[in-house]
Design brief:
395 residues; alpha/beta; 22% strand
C-alpha cells in the first residue's frame, strides 16, 4: 500500500514542500531514495528503535521510501517523523485519511521522543502558502511555528501521540500565539542600555548620527577606551524593528537553529560579534551544505568586528559587495542561494600595534613605519564603505 505524508526542505531561508512516499512490498530491507544525506539515511535505525519503544514493529518486508522531488537534496533528521508515520500507514497501523492535510516534521529519539528541528518558521509559512490545514512539530518548536496565522499548529512529545492523533485515539495540544502581542511584549528588551555610558560625548554623538542614518562606523582608539562597550549598546539606539523585519530576522535565525524554546519571535535587533579568526565562509555563508553566515545573522541589526586589522584580508574583502547590495548570493554547481544581509557594520581597532599611538600619557613603542603598515591592513575600498570614522582618546 502506498502512503504519502508531507514535509519540507530548507533552501536558503525559504522552504519547499517535500512529499514522503512509502510503499511496502515483497522482500526485505529499508531503502531510501530521493537524494537523502547521511542524516536522513540514518533515520531507518532511529525509526526501528522508536517503533519498538512505542509498541510497534517495522514490517518484515521491503520498505521503500521516496522523498520527492527527487532532484532536491534532503538534509537533516527532521524527516524521521513523516517517514515513520507513512511507514506505519503503509501497513495499516495509521489511518491515512487525514495525512494529506498536515505537514509533519520532527526528529525521533531511540525511545520515540520528538526532538526539536531547525527552520520551523519557514516551513510553517510554506505550509500556509500551500493551504495545508495544519502542521505537526515537536513541542519545543510549537511557539515558533504558531506565529504564522491561519494555520493550525499542533505540538507533540512522542511518536505515539502523533499516531494516536491520526487514529482518532488521542489529541494533540494546539499551540496559539498572538503574534502582535508577542511582538509588542518583546520589543526593545535589550540587554545593554546606551544611557549607561558615561563620558565620551563626541563618540556617542557620532554613533547616534550613524544610527539615525544607518551608516557604517569605525572607532579607532587605545585599549580600554570603551569601543566594545559602545558597540554592544548600538542596537538599543537603532529604530525599533517593524513586524515585517522581525519575521524576516526570525526566519534566518530559525534556519540557523538559533531559536530558543521560549522564544517565538525576535523583536530586538540582532548583534553579532564574530572572532577575528572567523573564515570567509562563516562570515558570508555557504559551505558544502549552504547555511547563513554572520552577516545574514546580523540582518536588520549590527555586525561588530573588533580588532579589525586582525581579521584576514580575504575575509574583510568579501564584505565589500554585501555592504553595498544588502544581500549575498552563494553560487554552487548545483544551486544558487540568496541570503539577506542588510546589516550595520560597526568596527573597532587600535591606532597602532601597541595601541598607544598619539596617546596623551602613554608613549607609543611601535617602530617607524609600523603604524602605517598596521592601518594598511584594512583596504581603502573597505574604508570607503564605512561612512563614520571616529578617533577618540581614553576617557
Amino acid at each position: 500500500m502506498l502512503v504519502k505524508t508531507y514535509g519540507s526542505a530548507i533552501v536558503g531561508v525559504n522552504a519547499l514542500m517535500v512529499t514522503v512516499e512509502v510503499t511496502v512490498g515483497e522482500g526485505l530491507g529499508f531503502f531510501m531514495v530521493g537524494l537523502p544525506d547521511n542524516a536522513v539515511k540514518e533515520s531507518a535505525h532511529r525509526i526501528v528503535s522508536a517503533f519498538e519503544e512505542s509498541g510497534y514493529r517495522i514490517p518484515g518486508q521491503r520498505v521503500t521510501v521516496n522523498l520527492a522531488p527527487a532532484d532536491l537534496k534532503k538534509e537533516g533528521s527532521a524527516y524521521d517523523l513523516p517517514i515513520a508515520v507513512a511507514t506505519l500507514g503503509s501497513v495499516g497501523l495509521v489511518k491515512a485519511d487525514e495525512l494529506d492535510k498536515y505537514v509533519i516534521m520532527g526528529e525521533l529519539g531511540l525511545d520515540g521522543i520528538l526532538r526539536p528541528i531547525k527552520g520551523v518558521l519557514p516551513i510553517a509559512i510554506e505550509a500556509r502558502r500551500c493551504q495545508y490545514k495544519g502542521i505537526i512539530v515537536p513541542a519545543e518548536n510549537a511557539r515558533e511555528a504558531a506565529i504564522v496565522n491561519n494555520l493550525e499548529v499542533y505540538s507533540a512529545h512522542t511518536l505515539k501521540e502523533v499516531i494516536d492523533f491520526f487514529n482518532g485515539e488521542g489529541t494533540l495540544e494546539q499551540t496559539m500565539v498572538d503574534t502582535r502581542a508577542e511582538f509588542a511584549r518583546s520589543l526593545n528588551s535589550y540587554e545593554y542600555d546606551f544611557a549607561d555610558v558615561k563620558g565620551q560625548q563626541s563618540v556617542k554623538r557620532c554613533l547616534e548620527i550613524a544610527a539615525a542614518g544607518g551608516h557604517n562606523a569605525i572607532m579607532i582608539g587605545p585599549p580600554g577606551s570603551g569601543k566594545t562597550m559602545l558597540a554592544k549598546r548600538m542596537p538599543g539606539i537603532l529604530p525599533p524593528l517593524t513586524l515585517s523585519e522581525s519575521l524576516e530576522t526570525t526566519q534566518i535565525h530559525s534556519v540557523a537553529g538559533l531559536m530558543r524554546k521560549e522564544d517565538s519571535l525576535i523583536a530586538v535587533r540582532p548583534f553579532r560579534a564574530p572572532h577575528h579568526t572567523v573564515s570567509d565562509v562563516a562570515l558570508v555563508g555557504g559551505g558544502t551544505n549552504p547555511k547563513p553566515g554572520e552577516i545574514s545573522l546580523a540582518h536588520n541589526g549590527v555586525l561588530f568586528l573588533d580588532e579589525l586589522p586582525e581579521f584576514k584580508r580575504t575575509v574583510l574583502e568579501v564584505l565589500r559587495q554585501p555592504m553595498e547590495e544588502r544581500h549575498v548570493t552563494i553560487s554552487r554547481a548545483k544551486m544558487t542561494i540568496d541570503y539577506p544581509a542588510a546589516f550595520m557594520l560597526i568596527a573597532a581597532m587600535n591606532p597602532c600595534p601597541c595601541g598607544y599611538y598619539n596617546h596623551p600619557t602613554i608613549p607609543c613603542t611601535c617602530p617607524p613605519g609600523a603604524v602605517k603598515r598596521y592601518l594598511n591592513k584594512v583596504s581603502g575600498p573597505l574604508m570607503d564603505r564605512i561612512e563614520t570614522q571616529k578617533y577618540f582618546k581614553r576617557a
